[in-house]
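Worked example

This section walks through a single chain of length 168. The input is the sequence exactly as stored; nothing has been trimmed or padded.
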Amino acid sequence: MQLQQGEYGEMFVQTLATAAGLLCSRPWPDRDGTDLILGWSGDFGLTRSPRIEVQVKSWSNPRGTERDWRYGELRVKHFNKLAGGGFHIPRFLVLVIVPATSAGWVDVTFERMALAHAAYWVSLSRLSPVVGRDPDARVTVSVPRANLLDPESLQSLFAPVGRREVVS
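Given that input, the structure is written out below as tokens.
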């Protein structure tokens, strides 16, 4: 079930990327801590064909505050692949909140197909990598509820890249 839930989370983000008119691919081999590479076709500001990379985590037991999700299941080794600066291509964590069972993931009628529930994004570039802990230990990451991922907000993640700024 965990593998299927993870695949659903990635497809959720791919669906949003398609709706945003973005290119989407998977890195191969999967060794560098990201699940998807999203790209803009053509010029975006000062940058030609910019890219961002995302690590997708799906979560069926969400906890947090009114302001933030408190995702406590991120392993140190995955956190460190996103944290800190120096990445040539900006990286983001995308947290997909999903129903507990696969029966609730998709609702289909003749008029529409609805995916449950929602995705949220956060940049960890301003946080320092974790040093001296077991790579499989868990860290808690705050993901703002205001960072709802939709086609428009997904496109906006490219704006700093288009201005050749550091993404934070």
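What to look for: The chain is about 20% helix and 30% strand.
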